[in-house]
Every structure is written in C-alpha cells, then in structure tokens.
Amino acid sequence: MELLAEDSADFGEVPADVANPGRSRVAGLTLDAGALIAYERGEERVREILAVAYARGLVPTIPAIALAEVWRGDAKDARVPRLLKACSIEALDERLARAAGRLRRATPGASTIDACIAVGVSQRVDATATSDPDDLRKLLGPGFTILTV
Hints:
It is built from 7 helices and 7 strands, in the order βββααβααβααβαβ. It is α/β, with parallel strands linked by helices.
C-alpha cells in the first residue's frame, strides 16, 4: 500500500520546510535512531506515525545500524523489543555500506549512520521518521517525505 506525500497530514503536522512538493509516492516508513528513542520515551508523535502506518498495512523498517545506535541491553530498552517484533530490520550489507560511503563522502558533514539510513530509504522510497530532519534532508534531497518526531 502506498502513501502519498500530500497525505502526510495523516502522520500529523509536517513542517513546511520538510514537506514534499507535489505528489511523491511513499512505499513505506523507516524509523531512524531518533524515532526509536522517541518511541522508547513514549512520545505521542512517533506513536501517531506508527499507528497510521500500521493502519495502512505497512511494516516499518528499522535499519540495524539505527538499532545499534540506541540499544543498551538494559531495562531502559523495554519498549524497543516490542516494536522490533512489528517491524522489519534492514541489515547493513556490503552493497549498502559502499553506497552509504559514497553518499557520505559526497555530502559534507554527513554521518555514516545517517548515510546508511538514507541509502535504504532512497532504495525503498520510504517516508522517514526522525528527530534530525535537516541532516537527512541534506542526504535525501527534496523528493522524500521526512516526518519529524
């Protein structure tokens, strides 16, 4: 099931500086480390985004590298394992790593983790839930839906 960027109001209010122009198609939803932390904290915005995605039959993607960034292996992680059961985990393989390295090198100030996430998002044409929309916008460009949590 596809989402239209113009329907992003269903995900909550999207700031004008990160909303997509036109009718970009969105295939799914990717959560970055900031979205995972927001979920862990019980923040309503990320829960609303996930509720809409699940209602539309989507299975959100969590890049393994984002999981590694937030996982501590203690009681503070209690909510994240429940979320993982309802998501797809994207592995970081050599192909994705090389593409991310090229993207990071081409984007001044980009982090390796953000570049890995951006490559997967661009391949799937996903919307992205993030607490860091500016960095992902630099990597993805204007044609992608970025939902700030």
